[in-house]
Amino acid sequence: MLESSTNSIQPRVAARRTPRSFSLLHRDLYHLLTRAPIALFLLPCLACLPVVLVTEWVPHGTVLNPWFASMDSFVQKRVVDLLLGTFCAAVQLFTVREMAMGRQVSTSDAVRGGSQTWGRLIVVQLWMWLRVCLGFVFLIVPGIVLGICYVWANHVVVFEGLNGNKALQRSTRYWRGAGWRLLPYSFGFGLLYLPFAVTPGILIPEAAGVLLTTLLRVPYYGWVSLQMLFITLIYVDLRAQVDADAVPLAEALHAQMTGTPAARSTPRIWRVAALSTATLFGALLIRVLCSFVPATMGELALERGDPAGAAQAFERAAYWSPDDDDVQSNLALALFASGRMPESEQHIRIAIRLDGQNATYHVILARVLAKGARPKQALAEIQMARKLGYPDHTELTRLSSELAEPPLNPAPLPSGSK
Prior knowledge:
This protein is mainly alpha-helical.
């Protein structure tokens, strides 16, 4: 048994009564990362990228029903989480367990040891998902509570050798004992490092390609890995507090940490918080400047009668904010004034897709269609604008009358006709 081998290495002690503080847990986390950075951080960050890249290229848009498209994406993400997510968790937990017992762990040893418990973690995850889903079916709150209580199920499998339902029950026992620390500690740690995970997504344009979009997942997986390690440290601390016969792995990790160079070089929490906040606000400022400044320049170019310059400015703004219907409609107007009708129609239809209840967008589309000699479609857009409450009825009447007028140079009558 894994538990007996662990007991043979560390002496049996009484349960800890004073849990470690947030700062000590944060320090021990850095210590773990400096000792095994590949197995604990880099491997979880990069392992899921090939699968995520493939799933990003799957043409979800070919599914006719949007609900089925979203469900397809949801199922793929859950499968990736079940297979690769549990494997990365197994590697991390095995590495931490071996380090707590004073053993040196190479990356190959971590992968080999994690693969031995991978299957058992998958079984526990399936059990957990089944129970959590049942909790959500009957009432939402029980599903949330079960999801929180089972957060240490994987840890129980790796550290204590329990499987299936027993692992879920043991995780619930730890939560009832002193698990209330998990919520504020994990929430605070998540907020501390979350800006580093979302900053690349803020700085990269939304219209970026699939490969770049996939690479943006790396910081997110890094954040998830750090969160996993932090929850692991809370687990080994709680296990020593709740179960008097358990091996105090927290004491072993703490003893190895004391006096090491990593302990002296660990950044203070307030410095990490300051850097995190500055990174987030700096990224937001850059993003606003990259999208807001071109849009403003485009509006100024339209006012001074420079549709070509306005189109260039709005194209830059649309590259950064393709889901902004205002930018798309302004770009359509600039392209319309420049005589680029097909592109103008394309962008005004994007604006209508983003906000179909805006009557002005339908009027713009009617003008574009009228220029393209499609009066029936233009009249349909005018009727839609009227239904949506477009305020300028005079303009709608004028456009309708222009579309309904006969051509100025009618074809001559055949000879001999009266």
